[in-house]
Specification:
Number of helices: 13
Oligomer: single chain
Radius of gyration: 21 Å
Order of helices and strands: HHHHHHHHHHHHH
Strand content: under 5%
């Protein structure tokens, strides 16, 4: 009996550790899901550049995202309306960086740079996330820091086509601004009030994002005119609205709450690899030895940095 009691005690002591490890694994998978879906959105964004003005594309993106998430989140948002009012300033700030600015900058970048460049440059955001985490007192550790540096080297070599050099178009600079905006949003997620439900937060940011963009949308329609609704434009808007917004933002927000912005940011380094893969499958773009070497560095860095 004493032996059995000891076994049960050991199992009970080990259970929290297993649960914590399982939660960390789920957090990494959710960050990976968001990263893969967002990689596809860069291809869709680039495809919309010639047919839908950026502000109009982003506005309809959030209208569609609101309609997609409302059936699941409206009840919780209504029940927590007092909390939403109490933390409205924080929610509005998170919306500004994560919904309004980030996506507008991405669509603006799509006018003058390639989908591959967009994905590669956005991979710079984990560096900013890690800096935010360090400033917030989070200890990164030697292994994660080395993984971060290794993945960053892979991204720099990928952008520089095998050498550390910079030759950016205007769209590339817009993407750097987007990376800063997204990293700021990810850092703000760590300050989300614990009592505020994830779905309520998501729906509120989507609604606020559409409202913030409404004046710019009206000006764009007045100056540039509307866009032609075709099966192609409708399909791309549905993808960025439902998958890249509703699904990916929910997965990313949950991942950050489970494993932190710095570790989720390391997984985000996989974006250039995902974009290259989609480019090969959808656009027929080939990948040479230099790109494969850089992707190996990125994957190795992610593997080191994402582990506890």
């Amino acid at each position: 009996m004493a032996v059995m009691d000891r076994v049960r005690t050991v199992q009970q002591e080990a259970a929290p550790g297993r649960a914590k490890k399982g939660a960390a694994g789920l957090g990494v998978l959710l960050a990976l899901l968001a990263t893969v879906v967002w990689s596809g959105s860069f291809v869709a964004t680039r495809g919309m550049a010639d047919s839908i003005p950026p502000v109009q594309a982003v506005f309809w993106r959030w209208v569609i995202a609101t309609l997609a998430v409302a059936p699941f989140a409206a009840r919780q948002a209504w029940q927590q309306r007092a909390l939403i009012r109490e933390h409205f300033g924080y929610i509005a700030l998170a919306t500004l960086f994560g919904v309004t600015l980030y996506n507008t900058l991405v669509h603006q970048a799509g006018l003058t740079t390639s989908a591959s460049n967009m994905g590669m440059i956005m991979a710079a955001s984990p560096v900013i996330m890690a800096l935010y985490a360090r400033l917030g007192g989070e200890r990164l550790g030697a292994r994660r820091t080395f993984g971060l540096a290794l993945a960053a080297l892979g991204v720099l070599l990928l952008v520089g086509k095998g050498s550390i050099r910079f030759d950016f178009a205007a769209g590339d600079l817009w993407m750097f601004a987007a990376a800063l905006s997204f990293a700021t949003y990810s850092a703000l997620l760590k300050r989300k009030p614990a009592e505020l439900g994830g779905l309520a937060f998501l729906l509120t940011t989507f609604v606020l994002g559409a409202l913030m963009l409404a004046p710019a949308y009206a000006v764009s329609v007045g100056v540039q005119g509307g866009f032609q609704v075709t099966p192609s434009t409708t399909g791309m808007l549905l993808y960025v609205g439902v998958f890249s917004s509703a699904v990916a933002f929910f997965a990313w927000n949950k991942a950050v709450s489970m494993i932190g912005a710095a570790r989720a940011g390391v997984v985000y380094y996989l974006q250039p690899v995902c974009v290259a893969g989609l480019g090969l499958l959808i656009l027929g773009e080939t990948t040479g030895p230099t790109q494969l070497l850089c992707m190996a560095l990125i994957l190795g860095g992610v593997g080191l940095g994402a582990r506890r």
